Amino acid sequence: MERVGAHGGKRWLPRLLLLAALSWLLMVYLHAAVFHAPPVSTPPHTSHVAVASDCEDCRRFLLRQEEQLKKIASASASATASALPAAAAGEERQRPRGGGGGDACRGRYVYIHDLPPRFNADIIRNCRKTEDHWGDMCRFLRNDGLGRPLADRIDGVIKSEAGWYDTHQFALDAIFHNRMKQYECLTSDSAEASAVFVPFYAGFDFVRYHWGYDNATRDAASVDLTEWLMARPEWQRMGGRDHFLVAGRTGWDFRRSNNVDPDWGNDLLVMPAGRNMSVLVLESAMLHGSDYPVPYPTYFHPRSDADVLRWQDRVRGQRRTWLMAFVGAPRPDVPINIRVRDHVIAQCKASSACTMLGCARATGSTQCHTPGNIMRLFQKTIFCLQPPGDTCTRRSAFDSMVAGCIPVFFHTGSAYKQYRWHLPGDHHKYSVYIPDADVRQRNVSIEAVLRAIPPATVERMREEVIRLIPRVLYADPRSRLETLKDAVDIAVEGILGTVARIRNGEYVDSGGPVTEDPPNLFSSTESRFRPKQSVQAVDH
Ligand SMILES: *[C@@H]1O[C@H](CO)[C@@H](O)[C@H](O)[C@H]1NC(C)=O
Ligand SMILES: *[C@@H]1O[C@H](CO)[C@@H](O)[C@H](O)[C@H]1NC(C)=O
Ligand SMILES: *[C@@H]1O[C@H](CO)[C@@H](O)[C@H](O)[C@H]1NC(C)=O
C-alpha cells in the first residue's frame, strides 16, 4: 500500500512538468512577441522634405514599381499560382528524372541560341586590346569567367577550401553563359523551349566601346544582335518576349536615351527588341523596363553540394570578434547631403567594435581588392555595413552573406526592392535595416542599434544568411551542384515565371503598353543615380 501512496505522490510530477512546460512556453511566447519584432525599422520618412537622393529616387521608382506589381499580382493571383515555379528559399531542386513517367523538365526547357562568335567569344578575345579601360580584364576571364584560383599565401584563410577565385564583379556575362551550359533542362529543339537564352556579352560590349566612342559604335553590337534575333523563327513566337540575356552590369548602363545622363552607356534596353527581352542585370533601374536584378558574382564558386555544405559549416563555426565591419571607399563626388557612406565610415572609425578595410580610390590601393583580406574580415564579423556607393547596390552585400556576416542596409533599394527572386521577402529574417535618414539626419548610432538586437535574434539571422548562401552564389560553370539551387537556377525560375505570365497575358510591364508616363524624377536640380564608374572596381 505504501507503494500506492508513493505512486499517488508521483502523480503530481507530470502535472508539475506540464505546468513548467506551459510557463516556459508562455515565456518564450512573450520573449518572441517582444523581441521577434524587427530589430530596427522605422517606417520610411515622409514628413520631412528631403532633397531627393540617389537612392530616394531609386526608392520612388521602386515603390511605384511595387504598386504596379501588386496590382498585377492581385489581378492574377489565382491564375498564376500554378504557372509559377516554386520559389521558396532553400528548397532543393527537383531532379528531372521523371520517375513516374512524367517529364520533370516540362515547362522548364530552355533553348540556347547559337550566336555567331562576334556576339560573345570575339568580344572577350579582344580583352587585351582595350587595356586602357578593361584594365587587365583577360585574367578575370580565365576559368570560364571565374578568374584566377585563390590559392596563394596571401589568400590565407580560404586556401584550403575548394571553389575560390579572384572573380571580377562585372564578369557575369561569361560566368552565366558557361553556367547555362549545365542547366538541367536544355533542349536543342527551340519549339519545345519555354524560354530562349541569348548568350550575348552585353556587359563586356559596354566596356569595350563606352569610353571615347560615339553613340553608333556603342550601339552597333546591340543593333546587330537584335537584327539577327528578329530574323530567327524563335523570335516570331512571342516577339522575343520569351528571350532572356545577361548584361552583367547595372541597368543604368544600357539605357542611354531614357537615362538622366544622355552621354552614359548604350541603348540596348531602350531599343524595341531590347525592351521585349528580359535582361538580367546586377541592379535594375526599375524604369518599367525588363531588366531583372540578379546577385553580383562573389569569389566562391563551389563544384558540388559538399563544397557548399563544408563552407556553411565553416562560417557557422567562425568566432566573430568584431561587432561590425565596413569595406569600401568614400564617395566624395556624391553630394554631401546624401552621403550616408561618410557617416558610416566616421561611425566605424569612432567605434572600437568596428573594423574597416579602407579602400582609397587612388590607384595602388590594393588591400580592399584582395579577396582574402575581405573574406577574412567578414568571417570575423557579426554585421557588415552596406551603405550605397555609386549606386544603391553593392557586390559587398553578397560577399558578406557568403561569409555568414549579416548585412546592414541603409536603403531599401540596396537589396529588398531588387533581389526579390533570390532573397526572402521578409528582410528582417536575414538583414538589419537602418534608414539612411536616421543616420544622416538624426545621428542614430549604428553600434547602439546593433547592440540592441538580442543574441538569439542575431543567431537566427545568421542562420538564415548561411541558409541563403547557395542561392546567392554562382556555382562553378564546369560542374553542377547535385541538389542545391544556385543563383542561376533561381534566376531561370524567375524568367520562366515571367515568361509564363507574359504568355498568359498577365504581365505587361515590359514591351507592352506603358500606362502612364514615368514621373520626372531627375530635374536638373536633383541628384540622381550615377552609373558605376569604375571598371576595375572590386570596390565594394
Ligand atoms: C547620343 O545619344 C544621346 C541619347 O540617346 C543623345 O542625347 C546624344 O545627343 C547623342 N549624341 C550624339 C553625338 O549624337
Ligand atoms: C515586342 O512584343 C510585342 C508584343 O508581343 C510585339 O507586338 C512587338 O512586335 C515586339 N517587338 C519587336 C521589335 O519584335
Ligand atoms: C553624433 O553622436 C555622437 C555619439 O553619439 C556624438 O559624439 C556626435 O557629436 C554626434 N554628432 C552630431 C552632429 O550630433
Automatic annotation (TrEMBL):
One of its GO terms (cellular component) is Golgi membrane. The keyword Signal applies. The keyword Lipoprotein does not apply. GO terms for molecular function: glycosyltransferase activity. Its main location: Golgi. It is a single-pass type II membrane protein. It holds the Pfam family Exostosin_GT47. Residues 1-32 form the signal peptide. Residues 105-448 form the Exostosin GT47 domain. InterPro entries: Exostosin (IPR004263), Exostosin_GT47 (IPR040911). It is found in: Golgi apparatus membrane. Keywords: Glycosyltransferase, Golgi apparatus, Signal, Signal-anchor, Transferase, Transmembrane. Residues 507-540 are annotated as: Disordered. Belongs to the glycosyltransferase 47 family. This is Exostosin GT47 domain-containing protein. It comes from Panicum hallii var. hallii. The lineage of its organism: Eukaryota, Viridiplantae, Streptophyta, Embryophyta, Tracheophyta.
